[in-house]
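Writing this down once: the sequence line spells out the residues, with the fold written below as integer tokens. I am pasting one below:
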Amino acid sequence: MIALAVGGLGSAFAYTAGWLSPQRLTAQRMVDAIEANGPPRPGFRRAHARGVCVAGHFEANGRGAQWSRADVLAGGRTPFVGRMSIGGGAPDGNEAGARVRSLALKLVQADRQEWRMAMNTFPVMAVATPQAFHEQTLAGRPDPATGKPDPARVAAFAAAHPEMAGFRAWADSAPFTDSFATDTYHSVNAFVFVDGDGREQPVRWTMRPLAPVATLDKAARDALPSDYLQRELERRVQQAPVRWEMAVTLAAPGDPTADATRAWPADRERVVVGEVVVERVSPQADGDCRDVNFDPLVLPDGVRPSDDPILHARSAAYSVSATRRLRETAAGAATATEVSR
């Protein structure tokens, strides 16, 4: 019932965004394309299949209350359940070698309103529209003869989408850190903070690690076990909680909010509004994050979505994926150790 309710909410958002219609791309088609790029993985999330549950609290310093009336930002502690994962649909993927890593949170206010975040290590999207994302997924489909994407097809897609330059620059140059705890995670998409008087401020946010950052070269990554990041995080949290500071970037008039491939100028004001504190780590098979759909459009009063069409597409696609996954699990398609996010 929860999956159906969330699915209906996501579909409503997608419909109002105008991209979910008989003449346009649907969430079902988008998820179908993702599924077709790999072998069937019943019971697993279609993207970010490998991960680990985390739990802790967000400690607000009150500075965010100037721009948003959300209780989370007013000051004090808000508990959360979260998940740290790597990109891709392989539940046995090599963690240390994953180019994309993610942090998802479900913060629950005292009034039971929720703020769900789905953040990634890349600071900008590769493409700006759901249709382009779908085309990118099709371009990356493995060739049955080689098991890898066709380089010519991938190159043709890249040539047709020069907006990918920012993402490709990050992918080519960003270091591989030695821990989930030492990565930086971005909202990527823009949102809008709303204060007590109804004034609106477009924002993006970043979770910046407070632990010292170390990196891994390719030889070191290749020598590590595939579950290295999970095990390292477990050991680290046993010694002390892991912390990130949440820095909110305030858009200036004219900064793009509907195009997540475009970074805002580096001189925009950034305000640290609190800290994310991870205190517990548990396997995703039976952890608190197992059945959570980290839909980025589940927002508390004081935060609303921007006009970015990718946000609405993500919401609807997450709902489709969650419904399929929970149905597979309920039908016994996945064992207890195979249940993902």
Remarks:
- Residues 1-22, 334-341 have pLDDT under 50 and may be disordered.
- Residues 309-330 form the longest helix (22 residues).
- The chain is about 30% helix and 25% strand.
